[in-house]
Automatic annotation (TrEMBL):
Family of the protein in this entry: Belongs to the universal stress protein A family.
Broad class of where this protein is predominantly found: cytoplasm
Designated name of the protein: Universal stress protein
Gene3D superfamilies membership: HUPs (3.40.50.620)
Entries under Pfam families matching the protein: Usp
UniProt domain UspA: residue ranges: 3-142
């Protein structure tokens, strides 16, 4: 069976990415390994008293993201595909590459909004970073409007 790592960010195009990944997984007889990488600064805020950490905010956010990840997993399982998931905090590119290695992934499936230029300079592009540094083939699915 082909192992596919599918990073998700719960953005507005996640549904399109999932649909494309499901189609791809069916074509190659694949198993989908979902991963969501939460930022490490959840729960931190700058206010009148300076930089503060609110663990309850972080716990609530992680709980909500796990619920979303479970829903996506159920959606994929409904297509008769094997699927498991992981939620970790850290630097997305590093965590995804580590997970792909642990899962002995054959492919990483990412979405591309087709943005470039100034957007990449200021925001960066996880897909672009992975395609440059991954020893595992990265399948990029267009998820435009």
């Amino acid at each position: 069976m082909i192992n596919i790592v599918l990073p998700v960010d719960f953005g507005e195009k996640t549904d399109q990415l999932i649909d494309g990944a499901v189609k791809f997984a069916k074509q190659v007889n694949g198993k989908i390994n979902l991963i969501h990488v939460a930022p490490t600064d959840i729960g931190f805020a700058i206010g009148d008293m300076g930089y503060q950490y609110f663990p309850e905010v972080e716990e609530n956010e992680i709980r909500e993201e796990l619920i979303q990840l479970n829903k996506i997993q159920q959606r994929i399982l409904a297509h008769d595909l094997d699927c498991e998931h992981l939620l970790k905090q850290g630097i997305a590119k590093d965590i995804i590459l580590e997970y792909a290695k642990v899962k002995n992934a054959d492919f990483i499936v990412m979405g591309s909004h087709g943005r470039s230029g100034i957007y990449d300079v200021f925001v960066g592009s996880l897909t672009k970073g992975l395609t440059k540094s991954s020893p595992i083939p990265v399948v990029v699915l267009p998820i435009h409007d």
